[in-house]
Amino acid sequence: MDCPTLPGIYSKPLRSTPIKWQGGPIKVVSLGCGSHSTLTPAAIADLKSANVIFGSPHHFEEISQIETNAERICFPSPFSKLRNMLEASQDKQIIVLASGDALFYGVGSWLIRLIDDTHLIFHPNISSIQYCFHALKLPWQHAEIVSLHGRPLHSLRRHIKPRHLIAVLTDRESRPQVIANELVNQGYGESNIWVCEAMAQNEQNITQFSALELSNYTPDFNSLNTCIIQFSHRATSTHRRLPTFPGIADEDFITGSEPGFGMISKREIRLTILALMSPENGEIAWDIGAGCGSVSVEWARWNSQGQIYAIEQNEQRIDYLIANSEKFGTTLNLTPIQGEAPKACDSLPDPDSIFIGGSTGLDQILDFAWQRLKPGGKLVASSVTKESRQSLEKFMADKSQRQWITLEVEKNLPGKNQNRKLKPVTIAACKKRN
User: Fold this and answer.
1) pTM for the full model?
2) Cα dihedral sign, 230-234-237-241
């Protein structure tokens, strides 16, 4: 783990205003994995000339061989207090120490949000992840990095795929055995897991397990550990594997009804909606009238760098929506909002795209959504009744780049030869001018 003493803190959004920095540059020294022997001459020179150095006790141990007269100040708890401490030191030459690589799940991200990057100088170093892969002699250009620092275990489910290679930053809750048990539960008990402990330290140890073996392993690991996982080629036949491509089966959603039924947009309709929403990295989306969350979950699962807000007034459907979000690993970028639009949307950030399911009061919701939609944003709405279609036609009449699609779907019921004919659904989309 690159920052074991401050789990999850650097990933939190900055809620206060940035500092108007008046002092000299803050120099951020990444200590790498193990000891200061990998520091560059430039980093060592900056440490020697510093007036104040911020870090953790173990950071100060790692630089103990470097002669410096700098005042050494431990990171505060809560970490947010560091802002005031930095402001009070603007007239000094400041060093901030970081484990591993400061710009890889490290303090660097927090500082960039707090202070204009023109006032920051970074001394790079090797991260624990890079060190692990080299120790294992595993090429890692295709590996995915997953942090469970302060994140729920079920967020790992987004990354569970056949033949996939990932590195997992753990914490006290998401220990190696807990991670292994999750893989077993998802049908990937044959996957290989390497537990890398205290890398580049005297206690360094690497142990290889199958996920099934590790789930039954009782001894404790060093708290400084990282898991490298090579997933097996497929989930076992007794498990229904998590989706690896858009188009989650209707029967896989939890709705409180017979599998494949309930308050969800069915797969064929849902994929058309998503294609019209065209999610992009970093976008914010609203799903108004989200039901049990099929559109929101698909949007969030395939657009991990975006954020979608699912607005639903029915309490039971919200419960199903949350269950589906956990099932498919989308809780980090899907936010359920229980309430009735438009009032429930008042405090939400302006969206880049909006989906509105057929609902009562569609005229009012369409007008409100259009006002809140960012310039260049996309609005998609569906209708299944004559009244809602008339509302859509009236609203879309003067909109640019509008599209109309009517879908009539007939499909067999899950596991049966009997067919089911869905009600025709009209989907309209338009784009707001820049």
Assistant:
1) 0.88
2) positive
